[in-house]
Amino acid sequence: MRLLIVEDDSLLGGGLRAALGKAGFDVTWVRNGNAALDLVAIEAFVAIVLDIGLPAMDGLEVLRRLRASGKTLPVLMLTARDTTRDKVQSLESGADDYLLKTADMEELIARLRALIRRSGRAAGSLSVGDLTLDVEAHTVTRSGQLVGVSRREFDVLRALMEAAGRVLTRGQLEQSLYGWNRNVDSNAIEVHIHNLRAKLGVGLLKTVRGVGYTISRDQS
Ligand code: CA
C-alpha cells in the first residue's frame, strides 16, 4: 500500500518513514506541498499523512488544492499545536482525521489503517458497481471480465472512480492525467471518455453539460 508522507522536519519525517515502512506501507516522503501535489497527480497512494506546518504552502492549502482537483483519498493531518482552530480548519479543508505530533506511532498507524479501510482502498483497488479497477495490477474488469484500456484511459477512469458520485471538470481530469502546469490537447479528455464508453458501455460515464463528467456511485 503506497503511502505519501509530507513533512519538512527531517527527524520527524525520517521517523515516520521508518515506522510506517515497518508497519507494511510502501512509503514515499516529500518535504513540501508542491512536491506532494505533483506526485498525487500522477501516482496512486492509499492515503496521505500531511503536516500542517510546511514551508511556502502550508498543509491546509495543500489539502484544499488536493480536494479542489477532485482527489478523495484519505488525508490524516499532523499538527504540532493542540488548538481547536487547527482542528476545525483541517476538517473544513477536507481532512479525514487529525492527530497531534505528540501522539504515539501506534495510535497514528491505527488511525491510518482505519481511514484506509473506510475508504475501501485497502486492497489497492476501486469498485463501482460491477466495475473494478486494480491500481497495482493496472487492470480494469467489469463483471469479472477483463477490459483492455490504454494508460490514459485507465487514469481517466481511476480519477472518476476515486471521485464517484461527484462531478469532475475537464480541467481536473487533465490534471490527474498530466499533472500541474502542462499544456494538453483540448480534446484529449473527450477522446478518452469516448473510447471508455465504447469499451464499457455508454451509460456508465455521464456527461454533466457545461461542467464535466461523473460516474455514479450506484450502478444498477
Ligand atoms: Ca513542519
Write the layout of secondary structure elements.
Elements: E1 2-6, H1 10-22, E2 26-30, H2 33-42, E3 47-51, H3 59-68, E4 75-79, H4 84-92, E5 97-100, H5 105-119, E6 125-128, E7 131-134, E8 139-142, E9 145-147, H6 151-162, E10 167-169, H7 170-178, H8 188-200, E11 205-208, E12 212-215
Parallel strand pairs: 1-2, 1-3, 3-4, 4-5
Antiparallel strand pairs: 6-7, 7-8, 8-9, 10-12, 11-12
Calcium ion binds at residues 8-9, 51, 53-54.
Strands in their spatial order, largest beta sheet: 2-1-3-4-5
Q: Any ligands, ions or cofactors bound here, and which? A: calcium ion
What is the CATH superfamily label of the largest domain?
A: Response regulator
Q: What count of helical segments does DSSP give? A: 8
SS-based class? alpha/beta
Instruction: Name the average pLDDT.
Output: 88
Using the 3D structure, state the CATH architecture of the largest domain: 3-Layer(aba) Sandwich
Low-confidence stretches: none
Number of domains: 2
| Major β-sheet annotation | 5 strands, parallel
Beta-strand content: 15-25%
Question: What is the fold named in CATH at topology level of the largest domain?
Answer: Rossmann fold
The CATH first-level class of the largest domain comes to: Alpha Beta
